């Protein structure tokens, strides 16, 4: 065998190694913890109850990774199903449950371990930046917005490596073909003319298969999301800030949405509910408000809009006409074939508003936080434990589960056990 043939086989091995490396590095830059993605995941799943640096509805998250037993593995189990960790008798979990007044963290089985890693890295990044700012304010002031740079640089680095290796693999492939042709010519072996890549059946089949898979992926996702309105954020006739009312001023949700605990619908409050406060409050002096596009909002002018709709004259301090109904734009729209009762969830299930509506107390403009898909609802029914033993609603029904709880055969009851995953529960 000639040296050229031997060298050609060596190049072929290099091509295989390079292609293997491409396949390895291509997903690698996604696999590494991405704090930017973690920020998005944190805002979508955690922000309604947690703050990285201070206690809120739940405990501050910064530093918890080093505090919990078992590190991230324990956190994975806790995030996926905190109730199971508590039921296992884990001392730290039980103490945490008791410390926070028996408020149980909802399960998030949809989050992968990589998603949780991203969230933890984002929390660590925020905490580390806060520490640096506290120790050297002047030195770090100009870096306040650059905390996510390392994660972005890593992604860019792995992307560049992937492209470089792909180019190297193509070059080595061409070199290998040329060396094989030279070796065959030297040994007097006739070399057939190479088939152009656009006529090569193998290449055509591979490209067709890739295009088919990519098109199928996007078409399936598009079909699944038909009719869903997650992140829907319409402009309302009056700029009403839940952050100001429910967050800063701590107005209970049920004061305005009185139907949430006693009827199917939460109800949009009438102008009279608003005027209970705004007969006296005719100007806004809180933090500057902004639209989602970043335009400043005049809070006092928005109150004047309310007066117009209510028919109220702030100078005479009385109603001067019948007013007009406010044409609020509905945000959360379930299909007509779905039955949903706020009373059943709020009054019986003791579900917090934020579980479905997200961090509503932080929203200036309300948007649809959850996708409200059937899978999302069914998953909640499968994993959420019902306040069963001490709930008057269940006192005289499902006696089998009452007995099993007393006998210690089961430690909790989920909505799925009560028929919450049956079709007719929501579709009838």
TrEMBL record:
Signal sequence segment: 1-33
UniProt protein name: Cytochrome c7
Matching InterPro entries: Cyt_c-like_dom, Cyt_c-like_dom_sf, Multihaem_cyt_sf
Residue spans crossing the bilayer: 156-173, 202-220
Name of one Pfam family that matches: Cytochrom_C
UniProt keyword terms in alphabetical order: Heme, Iron, Membrane, Metal-binding, Signal, Transmembrane, Transmembrane helix
Single Gene Ontology MF annotation: electron transfer activity
Residue ranges annotated for the Cytochrome c domain, each copy included: 33-127
Recorded coiled-coil stretches: none
SUPFAM superfamilies reported for this sequence: Cytochrome c, Multiheme cytochromes
């Amino acid at each position: 065998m000639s040296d050229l043939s031997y060298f050609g086989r060596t190049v072929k091995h290099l091509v295989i190694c390079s292609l293997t490396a491409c396949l390895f590095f291509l997903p690698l830059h996604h696999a590494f913890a991405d704090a930017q993605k973690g920020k998005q995941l944190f805002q979508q799943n955690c922000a309604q109850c947690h703050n990285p640096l201070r206690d809120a509805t739940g405990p501050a998250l910064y530093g918890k990774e080093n505090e919990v037993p078992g590190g991230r593995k324990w956190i994975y189990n806790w995030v996926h199903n905190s109730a199971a960790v508590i039921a296992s008798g884990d001392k730290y979990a039980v103490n945490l449950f008791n410390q926070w007044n028996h408020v149980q963290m909802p399960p998030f089985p949809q989050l992968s371990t990589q998603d949780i890693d991203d969230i933890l890295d984002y929390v660590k990044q925020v905490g580390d930046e806060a520490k640096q700012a506290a120790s050297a304010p002047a030195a770090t002031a100009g870096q306040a917005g650059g905390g996510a740079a390392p994660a972005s640089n890593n992604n860019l680095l792995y992307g560049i490596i992937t492209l470089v290796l792909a180019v190297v693999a193509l070059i080595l492939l061409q070199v290998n073909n040329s060396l094989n042709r030279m070796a065959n010519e030297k040994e007097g072996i006739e070399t057939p003319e190479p088939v152009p890549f656009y006529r090569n059946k193998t290449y055509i089949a591979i490209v067709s298969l890739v295009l088919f898979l990519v098109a199928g992926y996007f078409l399936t996702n598009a079909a699944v999301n038909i009719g869903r309105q997650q992140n829907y954020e319409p402009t309302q006739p009056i700029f009403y800030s839940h952050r100001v009312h429910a967050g800063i001023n701590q107005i209970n949700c049920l004061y305005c949405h009185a139907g949430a605990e006693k009827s199917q619908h939460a109800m949009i409050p009438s102008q009279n509910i608003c005027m209970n406060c705004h007969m006296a409050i005719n100007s806004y002096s809180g933090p500057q408000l902004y639209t989602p596009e970043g335009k400043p909002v005049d809070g006092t002018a928005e109150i004047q809009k309310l007066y117009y709709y209510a028919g109220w004259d702030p100078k005479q301090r009385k109603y001067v006409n019948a007013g007009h109904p406010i044409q609020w734009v509905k945000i959360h729209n379930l299909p007509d074939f779905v039955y949903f009762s706020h009373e059943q969830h709020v009054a019986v299930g003791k579900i917090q508003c934020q579980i479905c509506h997200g961090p509503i107390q932080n929203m200036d403009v309300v948007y649809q936080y959850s996708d409200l898909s059937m899978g999302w609802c069914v998953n909640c029914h499968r994993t959420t434990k019902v306040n069963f033993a001490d709930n008057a609603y269940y006192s005289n029904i499902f006696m089998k589960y009452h007995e099993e709880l007393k006998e210690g055969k089961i430690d909790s009851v989920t909505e799925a056990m009560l028929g919450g995953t049956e079709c007719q529960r929501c579709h009838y």
